[in-house]
Every structure is written in C-alpha cells, then in structure tokens.
Amino acid sequence: MKINSRVGLIVTLVVVVAALVALYMAVYRPQAAEQADLLDRRDRAQVLQSQLSASKSDLEGELASAQSSLSASQAQYPQEIHSIEYGEYIFEIIEECDLQLGSLSFPKPSSSKQGSVTYSVVSLTLPVTGTVENIFKLIDIIKTDPRFASTQVNSVNLNVGGRSATISVTIYGYKG
C-alpha cells in the first residue's frame, strides 16, 4: 500500500508538532516557571531592599542623635571629681548662704556603671546650721548652679527646732 503524499505530509507535520510540543514541555516550560519564580524573588528582594534602605537611614539618624545626646551628657559630667574644687565651691556657697558647715570630708570616688557608661561617684554628707530659709537657699544653689550640674541632692534631714540640716549629695564624674 502506497501512502499518499498528502497523508505523508500530514503525518510528518503531526510528528514535527508533537516533537515541538514535547520539546516545549521538557525544556521551555520549566525554564519559564523558573524565570517567573526568579522574577518574583527579584521583586520581593527589591521591595525588601527599599525597606532596609529606609530603615538604615532611620537608624543612622537615630545613631547620630544618640551620639549627640551622649556627647551632650558627657559634657555635663566632669572627667574627674577634684575634691579641692568641689570643697571650695561648697565653702563658697555655704558662706554665701550664711550657714555654718559642721564637717566636710571627701571619700575616694567609687565607680558606677550605667549601660556602657562608667561614672566616678562621690557621696557627701553636709551637716549645716543656720536658718531654714538659708538651708533651702543652699539646696537650691546646689541644684541650679552650673558647677554642680553633675550633683544630685539625695536627701535632706531638717531639724527645724535646732536650725540644722544634714544634706546628702552625690557628685558624678564621667569616666569614659
């Protein structure tokens, strides 16, 4: 039996189309799926990159602000606590407030750590006698005078009848 040339042509075309479909299914289709996956991953990476860039800018701004704040805080605290200077300041304001100081001794500074910052700390007790008004004036000067910017008034034990007070203060110095 002889195959008609048209039938042969149709059979050849069917075989070629089937081969192309098989080639498409075996090679191109997985590559197209992989390409679509890669494009999706690239888009997600670009979105993530823009979010991370914005976060990086925000964090850099926060870091600059924190460093500036740290520098400002460090400037408030003296590098060292010089007992002679603070003693002179205390005697000066005691005299200015018209008070009498019972005694004054400076202990050796201790260290205190808060976060990554270390401070030297000196705690003093100031026994004074005088009018209640002058005692309050002394406390106000210690709290507002720039020479005592790193000083904290911890407690005041006031004896109104005896016209005396014991003032507990802590002086902080930045160690770095």
Keywords for this entry:
176 residues; alpha+beta; Alpha-Beta Plaits; 2 domains; 5-stranded antiparallel sheet; 3 helices; 5 strands
What is the name of the CATH superfamily of the largest domain? Ribosomal protein S6/Translation elongation factor EF1B
Silhouette? rod-shaped
Order of helices and strands: HHEEEHEE
Work out the helicity level: 55-70%
CATH architecture of the largest domain: 2-Layer Sandwich
Give the mean pLDDT: 82
How many β-strand runs?
5
Q: How many helices does DSSP assign?
A: 3
- What portion of the residues fall into strands of 2 or more residues? 15-25%
Instruction: Indicate the radius of gyration in whole angstroms.
Output: 41 Å
Task: Assign the structural class, choosing from mainly alpha, mainly beta, alpha/beta, alpha+beta, or little secondary structure.
Answer: alpha+beta
CATH class wording of the largest domain = Alpha Beta
| Poorly predicted residue ranges | none
Summarize the structure.
This protein is α+β, with helices and mostly antiparallel strands. The protein has helices at 5-76, 83-96, 132-144, and strands spanning 100-101, 110-114, 117-129, 151-159, 164-174. The chain is rod-shaped, with a radius of gyration of 41 Å.
Explain what you see.
- It is built from three helices and five strands, in the order H-H-E-E-E-H-E-E.
- The protein has 176 residues and is of the alpha+beta class.
- Strands 1, 2, 3, 4 and 5 form a five-stranded antiparallel beta sheet that branches.
- Strand 4 (151-159) and strand 5 (164-174) form a beta hairpin.
- The termini are far apart.
